[in-house]
Amino acid sequence: MRILVFGNLTPYVPGGAERQVRLLVEGWSRLGHEITVVGTHLPDSDLDVDGNAVHLRRASVTGVAGRAGRAVSYFFSVCRAIYRLRGRYDLIYCRFLTDSACSVAFLKHLKMVSRPLIACPASAGPGGDAEFLKGFPFTRFLTSILSAHCDAINLISPGIEDEFRRLGIRPSRWSHIHNGVMQAPVPERMPDNETLRLVFVGGLRQQKGVDVLLESVSKAPRTGVRLTLDLIGDGPDRNQLVGQAGRLQLGTITRFHGVLSVGEVAEHVRNSHVLVLPSRWEGMANVALEALAAGRPVIVSRCGGVDRFIEPANGWTVDIDDREALTDAIVTAASLSMHDLE
């Protein structure tokens, strides 16, 4: 099968959705499918996957005229890609139910595209796909063409499903396939010391709630808890968060590592006791799934994603922006013996 993918992928863009696109593209390629990926941050080149060429193509956008200019320029990039590849794809897959899915659905509405369209929304909440659609003055038209021309929409989390059903989108088929992760051997035991090692992995931006995490971590030592916090990732709020850590006098226990390789991230997770992800909105956070697959418990916020699958045996959930509850969860984790955390 020839699959045309609209979306970015790692390492060109860091992020959970981009990591999922990479895993899907690699998996499809290994199965013998011919893959072309069109994204705003990709080079015009080929990506080698076990001797198979995945074709990467850049979609050009402009920042002129703000969001409207970006949307129009991206639409024409989609049109150009589909025209150039006409007759050379059997299926279109869009990661995110936003610009690309709306563009392809509109082209299907105009009968310029006839191939099946599968879309996968990436997140719920204030920065999610449903909120993106509600930000347009013609939301009702967009929801109608997405309902009419998306042959399937895959829902990776219950929170995303709730939002799209409320928005009124009714595709011909829903599917419920959650994000997948590569299974690595589970370490025999946790690091054996008296200091609770916390790790956060994600973008340093408002969505991820790192400001809440730093406040909660600053309160935990008052209860006698000894801990360290490793923050892996980068983003627009890095300087602000580094400054906040300084004001909270967390310099001796908090380390900002920046962007690390997949292998380095996995090593940090394996060497930690607990992964903490207090996001304000999410889809189905890859890093939380990867931590669980590595045998590490997680502390996550209740934002309609992986939190729906957390039980006392594998972690804790807290309300969004609830600093006290997050501190309590950290203290509870520290109070357990290394044997209990295993």
Number of strands: 14
The largest beta-sheet arranges its strands as 3-4-2-1-5-6-7-8
- Summed over residues and divided by their number, the pLDDT gives a mean of 90
Helix content: 25-40%
Flag low-confidence runs: none
Major sheet size, sense and barrel closure: 8 strands, mixed
Estimate the strand proportion. 15-25%
Summarize the helix and strand pattern as letters.
EHEEEHEHEHHEHEEHEHEHEHEEHH
Judging from the principal axes of the Cα atoms, what is the shape?
elongated
Look at the helices and sheets and give the structural class.
alpha/beta
End-to-end Cα distance, whole Å, is 44 Å
Question: Can you give a write-up of this model?
Answer:
This protein is of the alpha/beta class. It is built from twelve helices and 14 strands. Helix 2 packs across helix 3, helix 3 packs across helix 5 and helix 7 crosses helix 11. The relative contact order is 0.11.
Summarize the helices and strands and which ones pair or pack:
Blueprint: E1 2-6, H1 16-30, E2 34-39, E3 45-49, E4 52-58, H2 66-84, E5 91-95, H3 99-109, E6 117-120, H4 129-134, H5 139-149, E7 152-154, H6 158-167, E8 174-175, E9 196-201, H7 210-219, E10 227-232, H8 238-247, E11 254-258, H9 262-270, E12 274-277, H10 286-293, E13 298-301, E14 315-318, H11 323-335, H12 338-341
Parallel strand pairs: 1-2, 1-5, 2-4, 5-6, 6-7, 7-8, 9-10, 9-12, 10-11, 12-13, 13-14
Antiparallel strand pairs: 3-4
